[in-house]
Design a protein that fits this description.
The complex is a heterodimer. Chain A is of the alpha/beta class. Chain A has helices spanning 49-57, 83-89, 101-104, 111-122, 127-140, 146-149, 159-171, 189-206, 217-223, 241-246, 251-258, 320-333, and strands at residues 5-18, 21-34, 38-42, 65-73, 76-77, 94-97, 177-181, 209-214, 226-231, 234-240, 309-312, 315-317. Chain B has a single domain, classed as P-loop containing nucleotide triphosphate hydrolases (Rossmann fold, 3-Layer(aba) Sandwich), CATH 3.40.50.300. Chain B is globular, with a radius of gyration of 21 Å.
Chain lengths: 334, 325
């Protein structure tokens, strides 16, 4: 079902001005979303996961700036595309679902009108037909009484219904790629379950690819086929979801999974922790960006940053421990 | 269980908080929001009682009512056997030393104009806890207890990370050596790795100082990890009170079952199940009659909208408000 690369991000660098020179919020990121797959992009706040999506979409807020790299979408580099063509792609071929539907929807127009506007902007139909399609889409995302709800304003809907409207808009024009940035973080757990289930269903029906950005590892475990983990603007590990959760390799990934209360050995036990805090981008340690917190640091770690090396099919890790392992494995194989 | 553990520190009876909403101007009708409705609950000395539920279920309001940070519309609150509802300001002040709160958002709950030393000294000064030198020493001790360094006393809240700010919030709550700490979503604003550090700190401090926690949170994995017992709230009512060790084992209230089913599991081998609950939480303004959960309950029967199920003991230590459990 999943196939070739639909979005191929290569060596993406995004910078923000800092007090002492530019800070790299994304630093040399390589990431591929294959067609028809759900890729989970995870990491803690400030790791650059949202900035990655905004960079690719040309929506990076000033004073951020894409300083290098390519983002090939179906062979076209989004980073060099003229604004008009990019706008035509956004909404139609690539769409977004954000965390907070209240701030992403326009408060002064009915939700039906907002979906219809989107249809009108990209399709050659009458206003009446656009409204009809909008109502149909609202029905498809499970909004009860869509004819009536289409006339409602965002504030008249619950958080769960608003997020359904956002999803209807994101899927309105049959996109090939949906970027969902913390789509359920603002929702209660029973509503989150509904929205995740809906996203999964619609993704399977449409065959669209989804880049699911979240800090919630449980959401990723349930939704994604592959997972990529970011730390201080870098990809530190990527793997098929089963491997990522059963055999994570990077000490950061291992630490993140270990400190989840749901994976703790027993109730009331002390949780394993990752020492210290994520360093600010202008105070990264030399070499590996995780080296100052890493319990398994050894000499080379603070000399030079390790590369992201594929140690098993589809499993890449940016850590010298496993580079060594992989060489040994290669020797064993040879 | 020893007798010391089973002694109750807090008891609430028929506790109710209604808010008037809307209206007021030009004769629009005022409505009543039933945030907390006829709640009976006990917090045992030395335990962690987890209080879970979705937004708007009244769990934070209940925590505030117990601390008398909000005045109840009806009902009574007992602390250590003494009724505190209706106590005057000065007598309440003496009791406040024994009950403190940790807030969710360490950014907005710390005064940005005070240094950390000032923030921690403030409750000590208000409650006249010794000379300036003694207060100074106590501040340093508090910083140490929550894993911060003495030199941090001179810095301002904005100079700290989220996790460190939450440590400051916890230190402030501990300043007066309370017996009860209401922790209102103490880790939900924190990143995963920092969350684990703060959870460990809360457990260490409880152990060291024999604290009792009312832990208000929406994250079931955090609540079941930290708690001895869990109380589940829905639309202002307690639906279930259950020992945390049995939190995942039937029989459970249908709402608790739905909450557990809905929570995503950090294990890709577990298939995502279709959502157990349809629709949204009903409004706490004009909540459904009878059992408040009946509009979403997959097992609702004819009796449910007609009769409010009582919270009754269905197994030793396990209380459930459902006609069919």
């Amino acid at each position: 079902m999943t196939g070739e690369a639909l979005l191929d991000i290569q060596d993406l660098v995004t910078v923000f001005p800092g007090p002492a020179g530019e800070l790299k919020a994304v630093d040399g990121l390589d990431l591929t979303v294959n067609s028809g797959e759900v890729l989970g992009l995870v990491g803690e706040s400030g790791c650059g996961k949202s900035v990655t999506a905004l960079s690719v979409l040309g929506l990076l807020p000033a004073p951020g700036r894409v300083a290098g790299g390519r983002a090939l979408f179906a062979g076209q580099d989004l980073l060099t595309l003229d604004p008009a063509s990019l706008r035509a792609l956004r909404g139609a071929s690539i769409s977004m679902v954000f965390q907070e539907p209240m701030t992403s929807l326009n408060p002064v127009f009915s939700v039906g009108r907002q979906v219809a506007e989107l249809v009108l902007a990209h399709r050659d139909v009458s206003a009446q037909e656009a409204w009809r399609q909008a109502v149909e889409m609202l029905g498809q995302v499970g909004i009860p009484e869509p004819e009536k709800r289409a006339k409602a304003y965002p504030h008249q809907l619950s958080g769960g219904l608003r997020q359904r409207v956002m999803i209807a808009m994101a899927l309105a024009l049959g996109p090939r790629l949906v970027m969902a940035d913390e789509p359920t973080t603002a929702l209660d757990v029973t509503i989150q379950a509904q929205i995740l289930h809906l996203l999964r269903q619609l993704q399977e029906q449409s065959g669209a690819s989804v880049l699911l950005i979240t800090h919630n590892l449980a959401v990723v475990a349930q939704m994604a086929a592959r997972v990529a983990v970011m730390y201080t603007g870098r990809l530190v590990e990527q793997a098929p979801v089963g491997e990522m959760f059963s055999a994570p390799l990077h000490p950061y990934t291992r630490g993140l999974l270990a400190c989840l209360p749901s994976r703790s050995p027993g109730r009331g036990q002390r949780l394993p922790t990752i020492a210290g805090i994520v360093p600010p981008l202008d105070a990264l340690p030399p070499g590996c960006a995780f080296s100052d917190r890493c319990p398994e640091r050894f000499a080379p770690c603070q000399e030079e940053e390790p590369a992201l090396v594929e140690v098993a099919p589809g499993h890449g890790v940016r850590c010298y421990l496993h580079h060594r392992l992989s060489r040994r494995q290669k020797r064993a194989a040879a | 269980m020893s007798t010391a553990q089973t002694q109750e520190l807090v008891r609430v009876e028929g506790l109710t908080k209604h808010y008037q909403v809307g209206g007021g101007f030009l004769g629009a009708t005022r409505q009543v929001l039933r945030a907390v409705d006829q709640v009976d609950l006990r917090v045992l000395s030395g335990e962690v009682l987890g209080l879970v539920g979705e937004s708007g279920c009244g769990k934070s309001t209940l925590g505030r009512l117990i601390l008398r940070l909000a005045e109840p519309t009806a009902g009574r609150v007992f602390f250590d056997g003494q009724e505190i509802s209706g106590l005057g300001r000065s007598r309440m002040r003496g009791l406040r030393r024994q009950m403190q709160i940790v807030f969710q958002d360490p950014v907005t709950s710390l005064n940005p104009r005070l240094t950390v030393g000032g923030i921690l000294a403030e409750p000590l000064r208000i409650h006249r806890q010794g000379s300036a030198a003694q207060i100074q020493a106590r501040v340093e001790e508090l910083l140490h207890e929550v894993g911060l360094r003495p030199e941090h006393a001179g810095r301002y809240p904005h100079q700290f990370s989220g996790g460190q700010r939450q440590r400051i919030g916890i230190a402030r709550a501990l300043a007066l050596r309370p017996r009860l700490v209401v922790a209102d979503e103490p880790v939900s604003a924190l990143d995963v790795s920092i969350q684990a550090q703060v959870i460990n700190l809360l457990m260490d401090l409880k152990e060291r100082f024999g604290l009792t926690y009312l832990l208000v949170a929406h994250d079931l994995s955090v609540v079941s990890h930290l708690s001895d017992r869990v109380a589940v709230m829905y639309l202002g009512k307690i639906m279930e009170v259950i020992p945390a060790g049995r939190f995942q084992t039937p029989p459970l209230h249908p709402y608790t079952e739905a909450l557990l089913l809905a929570a995503p599991v950090a294990d890709p081998r577990r298939q995502m199940r279709p959502p157990a609950l349809k629709g949204d939480v009903a409004s706490p303004i004009a909540p459904p009659p009878g059992c408040r959960f009946h509009t979403r309950c997959p097992e609702a029967q004819e009796i449910c909208p007609r009769q409010v199920p009582e919270l009754r003991q269905i197994e030793p230590g396990h209380w459930c408000a459902c006609h069919f459990r």
